[in-house]
Amino acid sequence: MTHISTTTHTSSTAAATPADLGFAMPAEFSPHTACWMLWPQRPDTWRYGAKPAQRAFVEVATAIAESETVYVGVNDEQYENARNQLPADVRVVELSSNDAWMRDVGPTFVTHPDGRLAMVDWEFNAWGGLKGGLYFPWDKDRRIRTKIAEILGIPRFEAPVVLEGGAIHVDGEGTLITTEECLLNPNRNPEVDKANMERLLGDYLGVEKIIWLPRGCHLDETDGHIDNLCCFVAPGEVALNWCDDETDPQHAISREALKVLENATDARGRALKVHKLLQPGPLFIAEEEASGIDRLSSSHPRQPGDRMATSYVNFYIGNSVVVMPLLDPARDDQAKATLQGLFPDRRVIGVPAREILLGGGNIHCITQQQPLASSHQA
After folding, report:
1. Which of 83, 149, 281, 323 could form a disulfide with 156 if both were Cys (CB 3.0 to 4.6 A apart)?
2. Which residues 6+ apart lie within 8 Å of 99 measured at CB?
3. CATH H superfamily, domain 3-371
């Protein structure tokens, strides 16, 4: 059952889904009003009290702020520190969280042709709950969407399904791309099959066509989020994390994804153009990087020598910039040149992002776009 919560005291229509009411999720490359982020501080995710990660987050926020308003949610005990580190034009708000992955714990915004903005509030269980999840508890993360709805004064559609924002990409024209590994994982929604998941995605995001890739990136601790493997860069065009080394497990994953993409059509009937982004590395956690992390039984272990799920696809598309991770000096320039070719009207900014990667994700994972809407009136 769908429940619509709204801070503007409009009536709730329990049976109405966002699609029923005319809402749909815009593409990331569509105009934004703002970008939302969270401040890192969790010592079992981020080494040395998250100080190196905080510097990386500041660089990401600074780059995106050239393009649009940036909100950074901060726990009270870190508020003054964050405010002093972040640029004056970045808006720091008290917004408690368990960790800093706004893409996954924040809202998925949807818009209406008449200019209204709303959000989808998915269930969240920290990427698998007690069956492979990355930390416990996740109670503060679970309240973030409600709080942002209150801040913005927009309707909040409560969806009866566990889903993270990094698990989906849309083209804004009726097509969604995702992975079976994540959305059909029994640690998310064990009783939801592919047909029902497609219906739910259509109901809540207004999409008509789902392109299913089998798996996400090798060793991705999110159980295969699409945003580390493949994303829409324009209608009918995607970027794909690529590996030329046949001995690397990522090679087979990228090849099988390419086969699906080359045989797929989008909701408008177009064949997809695939742009390959050669993966960084492979990259591994160094001894000194692992030694700075708190060891807790309730969190995902990070050990020296562990391979990280590296990808240049994990970038953020802003109004006038594209902010990409710099991860491998041997390949950063090539990836940046490829992205600049894909986004000729935006300035591609590279940000040193190894500290974000050490926490388990990257730039797309720590950001969530708020699409432009001509009115916030519900």
Report:
1. 149
2. 38, 40, 42, 45, 105, 135, 141
3. L-arginine/glycine Amidinotransferase; Chain A (3.75.10.10)
Question: 245 is written with which tokens?
Answer: 């080394």
Residue 235's alpha-carbon distances to 30, 92, 231, 265, 274, in angstroms, are: 11, 34, 11, 11, 11
Peptide bond into 137 cis (omega under 30): yes
- 365 annotated active-site: yes
Q: Which of 229, 323, 329 is nearest to 276 (CA)?
A: 229
pLDDT tens digit string along 251-305? 999 999 999 999 999 999 999 999 999 999 999 999 999 888 877 766 677 789 9
Closest of 76, 44, 70, 17 to residue 206, by C-alpha: 17
Rounded CA-CA distance 364/326 in Å is: 13
Paired residues of 162 in beta bridges:
123
Q: Are 229 and 216 in contact (CB under 8 A)?
A: yes
CA 345/CA 52 separation, integer angstroms: 32
Reading the block at residue 115, the tokens are 């200019």
Q: Which residues contact 21 (CB under 8 A, 6 or more apart)?
A: 13, 112
From 182, 217, 243, 365, active-site residue: 365
User: What is the domain partition of the chain in residue ranges?
Assistant: 3-371
- Helix, strand, or coil here: 37? strand
**Residue 148 — left, alpha, or beta (φ > 0 → left; ψ -120 to 50 → alpha)?**
alpha
Distances (CA, A) of 57 to 60, 87, 312, 355, 359: 5, 12, 17, 9, 12
374/376 Cα distance (integer angstroms):
7
Rg (CA), the chain: 19
Model pLDDT for residues 170-213, shown as the tens digit of each residue: 999 999 999 999 999 999 999 999 999 999 999 999 999 999 99
